[in-house]
């Protein structure tokens, strides 16, 4: 772990106010309350300011209540130089923009951050262990994440921190993902019943990332692992059975079946993701060795998430 005692970084820009962006802002607002001189700004798409949907209006009210400044930019339409001009005003950038921008967006944002000379950068790497998985995973966005890491490691001007989180907990239970079918009391395990997956809620990601950001001595140029839970699909079926008070069937989808599903529906993101997660490494790490475990920070595990979000069926 690289630790430094560099100057105070107080002017922070968070990219995006989606599910993770709002959770990140909440985490930073909590940490800001214990400090002086910290300024928080969120970057939104210009079109979002004119969005009058109830969800967006509630979000804007929350940002106002938190005292968050707002700037706008469009990653698709603006050049790297134009984005760099926006980023240059800030000491740190926390990237919660996600993959919605399409191919090349994360590289574009990272190059703009480096061009701006931002002192500290937390890239959009809130996911699996891309180094362990390596290139050629079958997920183009995962390969791009490796390219982002190469860019960051090849320079010394901007300090960076990568927070590895595993899968968002809610996504594992998303009916569209096809792993958990609560209606039929079934778990479809990608690859093996004993493959594991690491899961963290957006709320915990935001809270822990803010703590990592303000950690002293400061952490820089390192990968920090966090986890709400790390669980095998066999354990998942058992937990669901306990929660719903009925036995769950555990079905293993072998690699050939998963590959056939991708071939049959090449446009299906979920089919590609099930195949990508059908592996013994890179998508799982020991929770006991994570930042939150070492710091004694309580997080939401699968059992706790089920109690909060899934009534008995």
TrEMBL record:
Annotated NmrA-like domain residues: 11-241
Record-linked InterPro entries: NAD(P)-bd_dom_sf, NmrA-like, NmrA/Isoflavone_reductase-like, PCBER-like
Keywords, sorted A to Z: NADP, Oxidoreductase
Gene Ontology MF terms: oxidoreductase activity
Ranges in coiled-coil conformation: none
Keyword NADP: yes
Family annotation (Pfam families): NmrA
Xref: PANTHER family: NMRA-LIKE FAMILY PROTEIN, NMRA-LIKE FAMILY PROTEIN (AFU_ORTHOLOGUE AFUA_6G00280)
Protein name according to UniProt: Branched-chain amino acid ABC-type transport system, permease components
Native source species: Serratia quinivorans
């Amino acid at each position: 772990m690289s630790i430094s005692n560099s100057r105070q970084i107080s002017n922070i820009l968070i990219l995006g106010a989606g599910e993770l962006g709002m959770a990140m802002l909440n985490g930073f607002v909590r940490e800001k309350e214990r400090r002086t001189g910290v300024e928080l700004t969120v970057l939104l798409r210009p079109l979002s300011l004119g969005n009058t949907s109830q969800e967006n209006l509630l979000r804007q009210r929350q940002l106002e209540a938190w005292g968050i400044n707002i700037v706008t930019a469009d990653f698709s339409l603006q050049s790297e130089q134009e984005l760099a001009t926006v980023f240059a005003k800030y000491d740190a950038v926390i990237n919660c923009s996600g993959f919605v921008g399409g191919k090349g967006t994360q590289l574009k944002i990272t190059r703009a951050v480096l061009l701006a000379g931002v002192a500290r950068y937390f890239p959009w790497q809130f996911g699996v262990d891309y180094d362990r998985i390596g290139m050629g995973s079958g997920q183009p966005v995962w390969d791009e994440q490796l390219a982002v890491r190469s860019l960051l490691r090849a320079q010394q001007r901007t300090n960076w921190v990568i927070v590895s989180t595993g899968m968002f907990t809610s996504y594992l239970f998303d009916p569209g993902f096809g792993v958990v079918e609560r209606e039929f009391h079934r778990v479809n395990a990608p690859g093996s019943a004993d493959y594991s997956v690491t899961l963290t809620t957006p709320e915990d990601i935001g809270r822990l990332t803010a703590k990592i950001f303000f950690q002293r001595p400061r952490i820089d140029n390192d990968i920090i692992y966090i986890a709400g839970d790390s669980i095998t699909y066999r354990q998942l079926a058992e937990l669901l059975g306990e929660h719903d008070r009925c036995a769950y069937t555990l079905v293993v989808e072998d690699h050939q079946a998963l590959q056939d599903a991708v071939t049959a529906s090449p446009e299906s993101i979920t089919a590609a993701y099930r195949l990508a997660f059908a592996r013994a490494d890179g998508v799982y790490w020991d929770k006991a060795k994570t930042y939150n475990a070492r710091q004694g920070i309580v997080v939401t595990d699968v059992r706790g998430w089920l109690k909060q979000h899934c009534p008995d069926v």
